[in-house]
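Q: Please design a sequence for this.
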């Protein structure tokens, strides 16, 4: 008889300082401090900022590292991490090594897909930021999420 493996879920934080994001600019300032600026113009990366309903940051998760002009974004991984740490709101962030802040069709597509997936799980995709070393673009700036 085969025994099934037990699945264990845990979430632990030692962060005593509560960071609250109240604007797109604050989200950019937080993420840029947590980005390897030595490769921001070399390799595309994707991260997600996980927050609770009060806009307090629970953590930042490294979703993926890619190549010069792309990075794989697996929605299932993002959602599983958000659920695991009881996040209710997320901000997707990725860099464009080219320095362009113009969203690609892929950027718009993943934003739409992730937003729909979040809706199914009662999570809120607050924004998708495209960042460079000195600036950012918000795909949700018009809606002013905060």
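A: Design:
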């Amino acid at each position: 008889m085969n025994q099934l493996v037990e699945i264990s879920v845990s979430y632990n934080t030692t962060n005593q300082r509560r960071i609250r994001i109240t604007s797109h600019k604050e989200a950019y300032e937080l993420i840029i401090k947590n980005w390897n600026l030595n490769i921001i113009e070399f390799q595309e990366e994707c991260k997600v900022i996980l927050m609770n309903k009060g806009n307090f940051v629970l953590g930042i998760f490294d979703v993926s590292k890619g190549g010069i002009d792309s990075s794989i974004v697996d929605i299932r991984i993002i959602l599983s991490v958000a659920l695991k740490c009881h996040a209710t709101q997320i901000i997707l962030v990725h860099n464009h090594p080219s320095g362009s802040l113009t969203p690609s069709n892929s950027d718009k597509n993943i934003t739409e897909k992730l937003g729909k997936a979040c809706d199914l799980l009662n999570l809120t995709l607050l924004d998708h930021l495209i960042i460079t070393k000195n600036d950012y673009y918000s795909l949700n700036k018009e809606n002013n999420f905060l």
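Q: Thanks. Anything notable?
A: Helices lie at 24-33, 75-84, 105-120. The mean pLDDT is 90.
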